[in-house]
Design goal:
mainly alpha; set domain protein methyltransferase, domain 2; 8 helices; about 65% helix; N-lysine methyltransferase SETD6; Rubisco_LSMT_subst-bd_sf; Rubisco_LSMT_subst-bd; nucleus
Length: about 130
Amino acid sequence: MVGEEGAFVLGWDEVLTEEELSVALKVLCMSEEEFKEYKEQDGWEDDSEEEENSTLSNEALSRLKTPCKKLLYDSVLLTLESYGADLKAEQDLLNNKEAYEKLSRREQQALHVRYGQKRILHQLLELVQ
């Protein structure tokens, strides 16, 4: 369901792996009875029209049903916990020119990537709160 990476890809404006996230949320938020029916039918009948008309933009994420929002919120918190430092610490390092310049070029690039990832995750937290 999630693909080889085992992760969903989020951008600033929308979910880039929207089909995978949409299916995962549907399945994970099902009742036991709904899941049994889903398994018996080998998935949903053709709801491709619904899927085509529903992109997971940031606006759409903020309108998800409460159980799906809670699942995403908790997942984002777990992901943020896996980082060594929080967003503020990364921002402070970026703003401290002396400390930043002591980092190797590779460490600087990694810092920018981590900071961007954390900003996107914090944005998602706000959307699903």
